[in-house]
Amino acid sequence: MAGYLTTHVLDTAHGCPAADLSIRLYRLDGEDRTQLAEMTTNEDGRTDSPILPQDRFETGTYELVFAAGDYLRGQPGAQDSLPFLDEIPIRFLMEDAETHYHVPLLLSPYGYSTYRGS
């Protein structure tokens, strides 16, 4: 099985998936940064297809950029001021061409966490 990349974004402040959150994927090669995909999360906080599918998967260094500020401004009770968090970049290495990489984001207005999921 060839490798692929997925994500799941959960809004921990509201206790629900983060729907309609924009995500961009970049491949990094030294100083070069190439955008490979741009997707939006569905009602389950996931993208409808892998961010990097098997037929386009290559090992290397990547960066997911989550548009947290846009998402947070659209939530009930959001303040009129700019949110504390804006874009959240997560840079990581995918070194096994046969592995499913899953990079979840747990998001709240004032913090976030991530981990290597399965």
Automatic annotation (TrEMBL):
PROSITE patterns: TRANSTHYRETIN_1, TRANSTHYRETIN_2. Catalyzes the hydrolysis of 5-hydroxyisourate (HIU) to 2-oxo-4-hydroxy-4-carboxy-5-ureidoimidazoline (OHCU). It comes from Notoacmeibacter marinus. Residues 5-117 form the Transthyretin/hydroxyisourate hydrolase domain. SUPFAM superfamilies: Transthyretin (synonym: prealbumin). Keywords: Hydrolase, Purine metabolism. GO terms for biological process: purine nucleobase metabolic process. Homotetramer. It is an enzyme of class 3 (hydrolase). InterPro entries: Hydroxyisourate_hydrolase, Thyroxine_BS, Transthyretin/HIU_hydrolase_d, Transthyretin/HIU_hydrolase_sf, Transthyretin_CS. GO terms for molecular function: hydroxyisourate hydrolase activity. The lineage of its organism: Bacteria, Pseudomonadati, Pseudomonadota, Alphaproteobacteria, Hyphomicrobiales. Gene3D superfamilies: Transthyretin/hydroxyisourate hydrolase domain. It catalyses: 5-hydroxyisourate + H2O = 5-hydroxy-2-oxo-4-ureido-2,5-dihydro-1H-imidazole-5-carboxylate + H(+). This is 5-hydroxyisourate hydrolase. Its EC number is 3.5.2.17. It holds the Pfam family Transthyretin. The keyword Thylakoid does not apply. Belongs to the transthyretin family. 5-hydroxyisourate hydrolase subfamily. It comes from the Bacteria.
